[in-house]
Specification:
Order of helices and strands: EEEEEEEHEEEEHEE
CATH topology: BH3618-like
Distance between the termini: 43 Å
Strand content: 25-35%
Number of domains: 1
Shape: globular
Structural class: mainly beta
CATH class: Mainly Beta
Length: 185
């Protein structure tokens, strides 16, 4: 259990801990995280450090607001992630949520790739120049949420919900890692 500033006390199992051996850019000393669903309908999760309760990053799967988003990993990244199949990975963009929420942006250049089976992750810096670190995405997110609402589905169960830790085994693969570069040597 950890007492966070954002969510209060949260409990988690060892099987819900995601190891990020190199940490998040700017925070290399924090390597153990869990994903927290804040209990709202935004689809945004929080990557919460279990080593420092003050550290939490809002994250969202980029396919929600950029359906053609693709991640190509190097041989080294594949080895570090122990990733043998795209069907065992999820990809998250770290969000910046300023006071003016219309300026919410996603870092598409440096996503966090999670091996859902091994519960190991890495923030990778993509070599493609098509992606930036401040992709404005609120309009696309709202459109996606409206589509969900119109289809009669809900991102959440009706009524107020409490925050909850999300187990990696319950996250569907994002299939955003579209090509795995073969290992060289």
């Amino acid at each position: 259990m950890i007492k966070t500033g954002r969510f209060g006390s949260i409990s988690f199992e060892d099987s819900e801990i995601i190891s990020i051996p190199h940490g998040i850019l700017g925070f290399p000393e924090y390597t153990k995280y869990c994903l927290v669903d804040p209990g709202d309908d935004t689809l945004i999760l929080w990557l919460q450090s279990i080593e420092d309760a003050r550290i939490a990053f809002p994250v969202l799967e980029p396919k929600v607001f950029k359906p053609d988003y693709a991640v190509r990993l190097s041989g080294l990244e594949l080895r570090e992630l122990k990733l043998g199949s795209v069907n065992q990975s999820a990809v998250f963009s770290i969000l910046t949520i300023p006071e003016d929420v219309t300026q919410m942006s996603a870092n598409l250049k440096a996503p966090v790739v999670v091996n859902l089976r091994e519960r190991v992750a890495r923030q990778v810096v993509l070599q493609e120049n098509d992606y930036g670190i401040r992709h404005l995405m609120l309009k696309e997110l709202r459109a996606h949420l409206a589509t969900i609402a119109a289809s009669g589905q809900s991102a959440a169960t009706p009524g107020p919900r409490a925050h909850a830790v999300v187990s990696p085994k319950n996250i569907p693969p994002s299939l955003t890692v579209r090509s795995l570069r073969p290992e060289v040597g």
